[in-house]
Amino acid sequence: MSAVLDTDTAAGPAAPGGPVGRVRPGAPAALRGLLALALLVVGLLAVSLASLMWGARDVAPGAVWDALVSPVTGDNDHLVVRDLRVPRTLIGLVGGAALGAAGALMQGVTRNPIADPGLLGINSGASLAVIVAIAGLGVTSTAGYLWFAFAGAAVAAVVVYGAASLGWEGVTPVKLALVGAAFTATCTSVITVVLLTDTRTLGEYRFWQVGSLANRPLDVLGTVLPFVVVGLALALAAGRVLNALALGDDVARGLGQDVTRGRLLVVAAVVLLCGSAVSLVGPIAFIGLVVPHVARAVVGPDYRWIVALSMLLGPVLLLAADVAGRLVARPSELEAGLVVAVLGAPVLIALVRRSRAVAA
Amino acid sequence: MSAPTLAPEADRAAREARQAVAGEGLRTTRRRRHRRRLLVTVVLVVLAAALCVTALMLGDFRLSAGEVLRTLAGADQGAARFIVVELRLPRLVLGVLVGVAFGLAGALFQSVLRNPLASPDVIGISQGASTGAVVALLAVGATSGYVVPLSALAGGALVGLLLYAVAWRGGMTGHRFVLAGIGVAYVCTSVIGYLLTRNDVKEAQVALLWMTGSLGQADWALVRTLAVAVAVLVPLVACVARGLSLLMLGDEQAGSLGLRPEVTRACVVALGVALACVATAAAGPVAFVALTAAPVARRLLGDGTLALVQSALVGVVLVVGADVVAQHLLPADLAVPVGVVTGAVGGPYLIWLMASGRARTA
């Protein structure tokens, strides 16, 4: 395994014409990007409306509007919309945006197209912390899991990045990917021991672990929101860095890019975004894997566009999955985390099949 | 032979001198590599053998190394024979076979798909097998016998075929295969998640135990079946090994050396799927063995070669060693399955290897 990671598989087709970060993107790419952004905003509004309307109890669009603008106390439709659907939709929007952006960042920084936000060990670190919370401390509420998930994610990222930066060649994409996978395996082992010996914890954990938007109180969102906002801002700022990193460390350095600082910035953003998303909706890594691929297929290899589009595509996919999950199993429902893969995998496979990139 | 051949015609003496020096350097390097290769292989074999003997010695009824070896040679009859041959040997042999199969499967996938993360547990083969088994355990309600291994085998093979059908489009690229595999893996994980949350928690725990990978179910019938499968597959791997190492040069290079890259790649992938499937069917998807074996073996060799034999040996050491730890070092009432220990031991080891190692990666 000599050319271990093909740098250009990560960026899809090789970055066109020189230092992407400094060259103005060609008019077609920019046009397509803007068009895609506009479409996505419309799509986002559509899925949000659908998410407010549909479920075990359907609410007419007019009633949704009334519920938002002039709620009547005692009206069951208004109650459902305001107390259940609005929090759920908002959490889907924020969680999806965080997951989508984190995925784009992760694929960029590891130069690996199969990287997902969980790769740094973030999901497993968060899961382990949640297990500790359930089994050791008897926490059973989403709000209670929140800080544990966040702390676990942060610790995992620090450990993985730290270990990958040891050794004389410093952080490389391959080391980052392998150390992340190793950390995940270690955490999973510990989690498995607990789950195999403690039935009560398994009973709680299996529901957290599939990932869902339901039954999250709105104040959880308030706690997480600042982190997500900072993370999204960092992500938008990181596009240029990722474009340079996609050319390889040496070229990036030659272009005057501080590779280490850039990478740290990106990893910090991933921790903020992914940590928030995991604590909000559970470990739904698949969104972060699919969404950047879709974005790349639309706008090409420029990471400034990929990150921006991923931010909008993430919530569209997550909310669509959530709505679909509510509709297929009425009056009960399927968790969004379960539906995401079923919706997303065919998209991913179709994209992969379409790409003619002979990158192997 | 690989000394400079384009040197100017004029200074012939100087050129020959240079060639001599270069040839000498090359020979020294090659000899050093060869020695390292041999040393690593021998150390791994000795380690694996020592672990195997240890596994046979330990237990409620302790035997000495001499007793174990005498029994294996057929000299000892009676109680020791029963303990070794009937109780401990099936589990050990199962561990060895599973280690070989996972080690090879991981090495094959990672080289042919050119991605160090592309082990069977990442590209969906293990998830397919797990889904098969979990469906059998939870949805159909199978309890024992061959139903669970067979449906695991079917699940893994189905995913392998599906991936091949999907990723093949006028040729197969590693990129396509890996991404499609991850997509399928997530779908499988969703199905498992669904079944785990919709069933009784006790049954979910049984399924979880299977999905962790364990050797506790070993008996001679199972071992014999797996042994036949591995005995068929390993020679086939040896057949494609040369083609695979040519493939590492890139498709065009390999093609100009008389290889048909597509055919070789298809064979390698098929073998990898088969090895991963039979091992998973027998012992469950023992975490991490397939992912770690090849990177560790290559790190130890450090010469950028395929390291198939060494990967298989690392697989054996990992599985057998982990099982010894799981059975004898950890508290017995935990009854930890082997898959937990492979992850808990292999993970930190790989991290350490990555953090402490020299320039060559994977």
TrEMBL record, chain A:
> Where is the protein localized?
Cell membrane
The principal localisation class reads membrane
Taxonomically, the superkingdom here is Bacteria
Task: Kindly list the residue ranges recorded as spanning the membrane.
Answer: 34-56, 89-106, 118-139, 145-164, 176-196, 220-243, 264-291, 303-324, 336-353
Q: How does it sit in the membrane?
A: Multi-pass membrane protein
Region of interest called Disordered, as start-end residue ranges on this chain: 1-22
Q: Which CDD domains match?
A: TM_ABC_iron-siderophores_like (cd06550)
Q: Is the Transmembrane helix keyword given for this protein?
A: yes
Alphabetized UniProt keyword annotations: Cell membrane, Membrane, Transmembrane, Transmembrane helix, Transport
Checking Gene3D superfamilies in the record gives: ABC transporter involved in vitamin B12 uptake, BtuC
Instruction: Give the family per the record.
Output: Belongs to the binding-protein-dependent transport system permease family. FecCD subfamily.
Q: What is this protein's record name?
A: Iron ABC transporter permease
Q: Which organism is it from?
A: Nocardioides oceani
The taxonomy runs: Bacteria, Bacillati, Actinomycetota, Actinomycetes, Propionibacteriales
From TrEMBL, chain B:
Q: Where in the cell is the protein located?
A: Cell membrane
Q: What is its main location?
A: membrane
Protein topology in the membrane: Multi-pass membrane protein
Q: Where is the composition biased (Basic and acidic residues)?
A: 9-18
Q: Which domain of life is it from?
A: Bacteria
Write out the transmembrane intervals.
38-59, 92-110, 122-140, 146-165, 177-195, 230-249, 269-293, 300-322, 334-355
Annotated keywords: Cell membrane, Membrane, Transmembrane, Transmembrane helix, Transport
SUPFAM superfamilies linked to this entry: ABC transporter involved in vitamin B12 uptake, BtuC
Q: Where is this region: Disordered?
A: 1-28
Q: Is-annotated flag, keyword Transcription regulation?
A: no
Query: Into which family does the record put it?
Result: Belongs to the binding-protein-dependent transport system permease family. FecCD subfamily.
Q: Which PANTHER family match?
A: FERRIC ENTEROBACTIN TRANSPORT SYSTEM PERMEASE PROTEIN, FERRIC ENTEROBACTIN TRANSPORT SYSTEM PERMEASE PROTEIN FEPG
- What is the protein's given name? Iron ABC transporter permease
Taxonomy of the source species: Bacteria, Bacillati, Actinomycetota, Actinomycetes, Propionibacteriales
